[in-house]
Amino acid sequence: MRVLVTGGAGFIGSHLVDQLVGRGDDVCVLDNLSTGRIDNIRHHLGRPRFALVNETILNADVVNRLVEASDIVFHLAAAVGVPYIMEDPLGAISTNVEGTEIVLRAAFRFWRKIVLASSSEVYGKSTKAPLAEDDDRVLGPTTVTRWSYSSSKAIDEHFAYAYAARGLPVVILRFFNVYGPRIHENGYGTVVARFIQQALNGRPLTVHGDGRQTRCFCYVEDTVAGILLAAQTPEAEGHVFNIGSAVEISIHDLARLIKRLTGSSSEIEFVPYRDYYGLHFEDTPRRVPDLRKARRVLGYEPRVPLEQGLERTIEWCRRHNFLLPPSRRAVQVTGS
Ligand SMILES: NC(=O)c1ccc[n+]([C@@H]2O[C@H](COP(=O)([O-])OP(=O)(O)OC[C@H]3O[C@@H](n4cnc5c(N)ncnc54)[C@H](O)[C@@H]3O)[C@@H](O)[C@H]2O)c1
Q1: Ligand 1 centroid vs 264 CA: distance in angstroms?
Q2: What CA–CA distance (Å, rounded) separates 282 from 311?
Q3: pTM of this prediction?
Q4: What's the domain range around 87?
Q5: 149 counts as catalytic
Q6: What is the CATH number of the domain that holds 112?
Q7: Please, what is the average pLDDT of the chain?
Q8: Does residue 206 sit within a domain?
Q9: How far apart are the C-alpha atoms of 289 and 236, rounded to whole Å?
Q10: How many domains does the chain have?
């Protein structure tokens, strides 16, 4: 297979690339390295069946050329992570809406199957648990920047459905809180990275709010398994699937667990949201995926227990100098 992975130098994308290269595919990564890291894919550089194109998905000519040369497209490139969205709302919306439109249009033009990364953020602040794919979205006002990410991913899904209605083979995946090696502090799974870094540095683990908000964390290997299943299951085309783990943990308990697994003597400190995100930030109290559809259609089953996944992540963080501040660490990080 000739495979195009947009965002392939990113956290999830690079793990997907490892699997694809490992099974013998010709892999091309299109990534502008905005949040992706060359170190995530350095071990593939120079291999005959691997190519990196350092360019933005907003460049339609490049996207067209690369999509035409591929058999399948995995579209993961996006502006990800609350800090980035809050910092540059316009850039984030443009990448996540216009960029996805360009990639989808190219897939339609050259008639290529496409697997599209969406997010549990699409559900917004819905308190329903578990969340099924056809459940309502519940969002705050448009004056709250945070919701632009949710809305942009939802627009991407609408675009995808519109192309699917015209026959394009497209599968949409909503990832729920992914963590694992190559995680980065400002990314989507920021809380796991932040706690590990704080614990390894002996600094207080800062829990936002009262810590009773819960999340379901999915080890990156399980996320990638879901992506590959979606690509190889024809019945999945035209559908959206939750991909994640259904095991729920409060953020306070996550802090306690990471403290224990790292053997850290750090305190756990509660910090109001407004100190980080300003007055108008809204968080989601709970977010649990309903995995029945993914199990039924894709045969998807997350396998890595949280404690085991965290141990592997902590081990990676130790090896990759999470003891240093990010600015000094970047140059020292190496591949897997
Ligand atoms: N990590 C999670 O928990 C999570 C949860 C839900 C959804 N997702 C989705 O999964 C996908 C991958 O996320 P990730 O966690 O690996 O984040 P990431 O930031 O590590 O990966 C995104 C990649 O896209 C690249 N990129 C950004 N803008 C680009 C542009 N204009 N042109 C080309 N490349 C560009 C970045 O450099 C990066 O390599 C994203 O679509 C994200 O929305 C992630």
Answers
A1: 30
A2: 30
A3: 0.94
A4: 2-176+219-244+288-302
A5: yes
A6: 3.40.50.720
A7: 92
A8: no
A9: 18
A10: 1
